[in-house]
């Protein structure tokens, strides 16, 4: 493959997308981007792939994972069932970048679709998203499950992709290439010192996905059961025993202010679900605010406790959480 641009998908004369490992040597294939003739290589020692000379094309699929390739193929079919014109790896010369798909929509802005499988920094995510905005493109990021699978807690790597819907709350959308379907993790919520909570929904149809975000549903509020509360108290008891980090700071402040730490913990511990945008439990700034008896600084919370969000204004949701917590 040295000295050549390699691609794992080509298109036929009637614009059907074909994987190199399923291609017929007797057929003619073209580059999905530049539409020039491709060479099919299916040797014993290399992965099946298409190739053309390096100067022939500005966009190619070099070094992609199997998950990314399968996901792009799924998304192409997913959108093509509803939209007449969906282009794979369309090169945007103004931005010198190419979304995985470009969906041409008559009534609305054209849609740039990204399927993110590899780790991506917040700065790079923001840069690419800003570029789409400046070009007047709508855009959306689908996630791969290998590197962005949700666990018991949120992480910066995942939180930066968070979106919010008035109907479904905080959500993320995945492409499950194994099951060949879209997976929506929605109503993502946090409770102090407990695992991340959310619901899942699946579809393989674009119209169903669109309808899912338009249909009304009551907000999911996970119950904090007695066992959950006991777990919260055990976590705090262990922290008080070792007296490190945030707990040490809280103990020190309570001592200086002559505040009753047991009372502060009882009042500061939260049973109400809150936004999944924080890298630390809300208990910490809630308890500190109770000890010093002063108003909470939203900007300070966002800076010290919040994840960096590419598509949302964290201060809006922090203010909502403050209102709920202090009025409980």
From TrEMBL:
Top-level taxon of origin: Bacteria
Record organism: Ligilactobacillus apodemi DSM 16634 = JCM 16172
Domain Competence protein CoiA nuclease-like intervals: 64-189
InterPro entries in alphabetical order: CoiA-like_N, CoiA_nuc
Ranges of residues in domain Competence protein CoiA-like N-terminal: 21-58
Name this polypeptide is given: Competence protein transcription factor
Transmembrane intervals: none
Pfam families from the UniProt entry: CoiA_N, CoiA_nuc
